[in-house]
């Protein structure tokens, strides 16, 4: 019997390295990354990231879960976390891909009931420019704001990014409602456990709870929690918790003036050396070196 190779779990759109930015979203054109891979992004999935793709011109052969289809443009594609997906773009494809980190998706769900649309793995044909134009304008503004270097106006910048992605979500929800493509009502039990686990991480990560404690909150054993996390995301329960801690550490080092010791304490590390060791293991550099690099870029 021939065994199919496992589907890889990536950190960002074809890469295994960590989330490259302290922001909760990443925005780039289709061409910026796809041409590096000869316009072919092989099937993969993400543990804690989701994609929104706006395609204005060109064509794409899409694999999205069980769906395989050739998609004409303009179109919008929604790829929730853990869903297997791959793309083969025509070289003339024009558009953007916006990647959202799980904490931002959770925030959108809290603020907007319409954010349920982000749970649907599907694509939405857009009626030529009449439907594409508002989305294209919003994402162009988001791309411009995203590319601004971090600086003293970071709070304004983050507020603007959040406002724009909320507007994109609402536009997407309108199109989903017209086509009756809202998310499925049911989820398998493992997916529900994973969603609740992510919510617990978001609430308690700075307390650094143990995995058995979090599993008990879910009413399951820690071995069961680890098994479903690995099955659905490719990562252990502890790796998902540590990824959220690492993301928050990057954000605090980039966007605050707190000392490294203060940041470590806020994130539950009893000694600065423990925080430094954790951060270096996850990024390959010390917190001080990461902050200096961020300051140089800004």
UniProtKB/TrEMBL annotation:
InterPro entries noted in UniProt: Cupin_HpaA-like_N (IPR047264), Homeodomain-like_sf (IPR009057), HTH_AraC (IPR018060), RmlC-like_jellyroll (IPR014710), RmlC_Cupin_sf (IPR011051), Tscrpt_reg_AraC-type_HTH (IPR020449)
Nuclease in keyword set: no
Keywords: DNA-binding, Transcription, Transcription regulation
CDD domains: cupin_HpaA-like_N
The keyword Metal-binding is assigned to this record: no
Domain HTH araC/xylS-type, first and last residues per copy: 195-293
Protein name: Helix-turn-helix domain-containing protein
Organism for this UniProt entry: Salinicola endophyticus
